[in-house]
């Protein structure tokens, strides 16, 4: 079974100067964006240096990865990859735990 390519991207190693707006602007040349957001510290509201960008189509997400992964943005080398599905990760961890207890 072919694994479906996701439309949500994980962007890491972002500069402290990167904003939600500049993140959206950076990724917008590659296609229609549904959502672009930085993850912030709940207490200080300062960006944690990573975020997520969600595209309308898988092709647009692929183009963004190909063009931006390993590029320097705001003085920082950034990495762009397909975001992992949290549900899949949790399911895999629970399966491994169950197998270890048998």
From TrEMBL:
Record-linked Gene3D superfamilies: 3.30.70.330
Domain RRM: 7-85
GO molecular function: RNA binding
UniProt keyword terms in alphabetical order: RNA-binding
Top-level taxon of origin: Eukaryota
Cited SMART domains: RRM
Cleavable signal peptide: none
UniProt keyword Iron present: no
One Pfam family, short name: RRM_1
PANTHER family: TRANSFORMER-2 SEX-DETERMINING PROTEIN-RELATED
Name the UniProt record assigns to this protein: RRM domain-containing protein
Taxonomy of the source species: Eukaryota, Viridiplantae, Streptophyta, Embryophyta, Tracheophyta
């Amino acid at each position: 079974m072919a694994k479906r390519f996701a439309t949500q991207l994980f962007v890491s190693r972002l500069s402290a100067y990167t904003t939600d707006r500049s993140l959206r602007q950076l990724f917008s040349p590659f296609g229609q964006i549904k959502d672009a957001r930085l993850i912030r510290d709940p207490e200080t509201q300062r960006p944690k240096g990573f975020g997520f960008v969600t595209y309308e189509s898988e092709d647009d997400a692929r183009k963004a990865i190909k063009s931006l992964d390993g590029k320097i943005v705001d003085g920082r080398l950034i990495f762009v990859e397909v975001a992992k599905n949290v549900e899949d990760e949790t399911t895999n961890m629970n399966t491994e735990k169950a197998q270890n207890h048998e």
